[in-house]
Design goal:
about 575 residues; alpha+beta; two-stranded antiparallel ribbon; 20 helices
């Protein structure tokens, strides 16, 4: 039985009835026990007594053998120094502490001096010393990189300034229209967010320039919105008054041209689908597929937030995961699986890049694209990707490019959700193992939400002082509907210029039912009486205490479950 399952074989065939294409080689050179156990978990009826591998606790010391994680730990120390009153002083303290740890490590290696605990901790000292040195360097780097933005005057008035408009920005349908603008002043290039003082919309708000007067306000009031703008690279907000007519730039940046192309495609979709879809349904399709929420009503956006599903509206890892799954399944069918792996991965990365660019290349989308690309690179090289190393490397790239990206609440919440899923989903899966695959899908959908919410609970109370309990039962139907609307909405929007005038009903009518159901369910779950909001105002000490208790509870639960299993030698 063990040889049949592939535990002791070098290479095996998996066979699925249906056609000759259902027989394929396993892509790994050696069939590992973990892959067999994963297959047995998918078919528990066929393999009811399959041996299970023990669960793993949260082994923080073992993470110190990952270079990217050690560097990220140092960057975190550097951010603490950067946020202090004297960056130079605390960076020096970190450097001295790193030298002290290095000296202790060398001393313990040359002599038998020290207690047993110190000798046990000796292998960890080099990692902590490197983290201290990296922290000292990053603290000074972040202070130098962001000094001009953080010291920007509270109020600044500029007359006759050349204003280079990139693209318009709108949070929802009724919000005042703002423009991302580049201003060059005193040898500095500043990206700011401006509104027209008279409230009039620019005729062409993509890649135009004109002379005008500016009133700028620094992002220093500490609100969550201003922290978000700082994390996105903006310098200030304000108003502008044009003096000359806008002139289109001869060679606008690539990002501006891409945004203008997306706007033209969306306008064509909205015009041709108007007889078949309501404005709210059109806004939902565009928001889910392309991340453009300017056509959504404020009430609809608030319903998504109240239902705990704001992540569905922001193009991030979830959207790229849907595109990744569908595009990967399509390419796996079109290309020979075991002979064309590298071309398949290259095409998949190219498709994800195009989707990232078409959605505006927001920070969350780029972060998910970088992680997906690293995973594909590891697969192409035949290397196993490590989740901790992958997340650490992605964060390092973003923090080096934009040191203030740590101010983004979305970044913190996405990291917490991924950590919760990686840490608790395997544990919850062992508690409930259905015999049918459909039930397994619902189990995974529910436990993914539960794992993420367990990890995010203190952060939600810390940042927003509330938690929506409706997310536990609204997540499954709404996420399933969005998994249908995202790919087909993208398909309909970009085929609208080609097929919208030929077969409009066949192209747009399939969107009506899922869009209408999703709006109705979101309004129901996000309503005042159904959101079930729990209020709470947590301090930083309570957040730290919660995570400490959570780590201990996870270790105890893993230990208890592993004791119930027996493993062969």
């Amino acid at each position: 039985m063990g040889a049949f399952l592939g535990v002791r074989t070098e290479r095996i065939f998996w066979y699925r009835p249906g056609s000759w294409r259902d027989t394929y080689w396993d892509e790994r050179p050696v069939q590992t026990k973990k892959s067999v156990i994963d297959r047995a978990s998918r078919y528990p009826i066929l393999y009811p007594k399959m041996i299970e591998e023990p669960l793993s606790p949260l082994p923080f010391p073992r993470h110190l053998d990952r270079p990217a994680f050690v560097a990220l730990l140092g960057v975190a120390l550097g951010l603490v120094a950067f946020g202090s009153s004297s960056v130079l002083l605390w960076s020096g303290v970190l450097a001295l502490f790193g030298l002290l740890l290095s000296g202790v490590y060398l001393l313990l290696g040359k002599t038998s001096f020290g207690f047993g605990a110190l000798q046990t901790l000796r292998p960890l000292l080099p990692s902590f010393a490197v983290a201290c040195f990296v922290g000292a360097a990053f603290g000074l780097f972040a202070a130098e990189r962001t000094r001009d933005r953080l010291l920007f005057p509270k109020e600044t008035v500029l007359y006759g300034q050349r204003i280079e408009v990139l693209y318009p920005v709108a949070a929802h349908r009724s919000s005042p229209l703002q423009y991302a603008v580049v201003i060059r002043s005193e040898g500095r290039e500043m990206e700011v967010l401006l509104r027209p003082r008279d409230g009039k919309k620019l005729e062409n708000g993509y890649g135009v320039s004109f002379l005008g007067d500016l009133t700028l306000s620094a992002l220093t009031d500490g609100t969550s919105y201003h922290r978000y703008l700082l994390s996105e690279g903006y310098w200030a907000t304000g108003f502008f008054t044009p003096r000359t007519a806008p002139v289109r730039a001869e060679n606008p940046p690539f990002g501006v041209r891409l945004q203008a192309l997306r706007e033209r495609v969306v306008q064509d979709f909205v015009r041709k689908s108007a007889p078949f879809l309501s404005p709210d349904e059109q806004g939902l399709v565009v928001a889910l597929s392309l991340g453009d929420r300017s056509r959504l009503q404020k009430a609809d956006r608030d319903d998504f937030t109240n239902a705990g599903l704001a992540h569905v509206m922001a193009v991030s890892g979830y959207h790229l995961g849907v595109i990744f799954f569908l595009l990967g399944a399509l390419l796996k069918r079109l290309l020979w699986p075991h002979r064309m792996r590298a071309p398949r991965y290259a095409l998949l990365a190219t498709g994800l890049l195009l989707y990232t660019l078409l959605t505006g290349a927001a920070t969350a989308t780029v972060r998910a694209f970088v992680m997906s690309t690293l995973i594909l690179l590891g697969k192409a090289l035949g290397r196993r990707t490590d989740a901790v190393q992958l997340m650490s490397l992605t964060l390092l790239l973003f923090l080096l490019f934009e040191p203030l990206s740590f101010l983004s609440v979305g970044l913190v919440l996405s990291l917490g959700a991924v950590w919760g899923i990686l840490s608790f989903l395997p544990l919850f899966r062992r508690l409930f193992r259905p015999s049918f695959r459909v039930l397994g899908w619902f189990r995974d959908a529910f436990f993914v939400t539960l794992s993420a919410q367990v990890a995010l609970l203190p952060l939600l109370f810390f940042y927003f002082s509330k938690l929506q309990l409706s997310v536990f039962w609204s997540n499954i139907p709404l996420v399933l509907l969005s998994a249908v609307l995202i790919p087909y909405g993208l398909f309909a929007v970009f085929l609208s210029p080609l097929l919208g005038g030929v077969v409009p009903g066949l192209l747009y009518l399939p969107l009506r039912a899922p869009a209408s159901w999703m709006l109705g369910l979101t309004h129901f779950f996000g309503g005042d009486g159904n959101a079930l909001t729990v209020q709470g105002d947590w301090s930083l000490f309570m957040v730290i205490a919660y995570y400490a208790a959570l780590v201990i509870a996870q270790k105890l639960a893993v230990s208890l479950l592993n004791r119930r299993l027996s493993y062969p030698a």
